[in-house]
């Protein structure tokens, strides 16, 4: 028995330097990992489409924004502009976004409202062994009554971080 303990201690000492060189993952809610924490895709009828991703890195968290912003010029000619940016978050902003994300996960999966114009919002996340993906028509329409106010607040906040003045409603 003593030999086994000494052997395990020796192995632990040999492996300790390798473990100390390993990167410590960034916390994502109750998860600790690198990579994408969640994505929120918003496709509007007339303003464009955008995908926001919260990503954990060794340096903290970032929000990436990718998409196409649409505006209209003379004679209602459609003008498309590619949007691509990375927003580095401080600790307070990270906490706020994670709090909004948790509230967004409380969405009403039975919501069945729809329409011709408006927007479609799709939230995807992976937490430990749980994956979720849900899409909703225009959460800006009666968000509290539909149980989508958390999702709506998350989208509005993420759009407000962008330097591109995104319109998501």
What does the model show?
The protein has 4 helices and 8 strands, in the order αββββββαββαα. The chain has 169 residues and is α+β, with helices and mostly antiparallel strands. It has helices spanning 2-21, 91-104, 143-146, 149-161, and strands spanning 27-28, 31-32, 35-44, 48-57, 60-72, 78-89, 119-127, 130-137. The strands form 2 sheets. Strands 6-5-4-3-7-8 form a 6-stranded antiparallel sheet. The chain has a two-stranded antiparallel ribbon with strand order 1-2. Helix 2 (91-104) packs antiparallel against helix 4. The chain has a single domain, classed as Mago nashi protein. Helices cover 30% and strands 39% of the residues. It is globular. The longest helix has 20 residues, at 2-21. Residues 1-32 have low confidence and may be disordered.
Q: Biggest sheet, open or closed, and with what strands and sense? A: 6 strands, antiparallel
Q: On the 0-100 scale, what is the average pLDDT?
A: 80
Helix content: 25-40%
Major sheet strand order: 6-5-4-3-7-8
Distance between the ends: 68 Å
User: Which fold name is given in CATH as the topology?
Assistant: Mago nashi protein
Let me know the number of strands: 8
- CATH first level: which class? Alpha Beta
Distinctive features:
39% strand, 6-stranded antiparallel β-sheet, disordered N terminus, 4 helices, alpha+beta, two-stranded antiparallel ribbon, 169 residues, Mago nashi protein, 8 strands
């Amino acid at each position: 028995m003593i030999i086994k303990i000494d052997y395990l201690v020796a192995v632990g000492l040999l492996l300790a330097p390798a473990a100390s060189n390993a990167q410590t993952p960034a916390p994502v809610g109750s998860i600790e990992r690198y990579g994408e924490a969640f994505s929120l895709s918003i496709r509007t009828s007339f303003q464009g489409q955008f995908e926001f991703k919260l990503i954990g890195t060794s340096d903290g968290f970032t929000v990436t924004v990718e998409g196409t912003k649409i505006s209209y010029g003379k004679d209602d000619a459609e003008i498309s502009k590619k949007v691509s940016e990375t927003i580095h978050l401080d600790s307070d902003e990270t906490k706020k976004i994670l709090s909004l994300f948790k509230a967004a996960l409380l969405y009403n999966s039975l919501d069945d409202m729809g329409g011709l114009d408006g927007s479609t919002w799709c939230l995807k996340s992976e937490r430990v062994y749980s994956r979720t993906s849900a899409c909703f028509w225009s959460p800006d329409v009666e968000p509290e009554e539909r149980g989508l106010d958390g999702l709506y607040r998350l989208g509005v906040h993420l759009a407000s971080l962008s330097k591109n003045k995104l319109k998501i409603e």
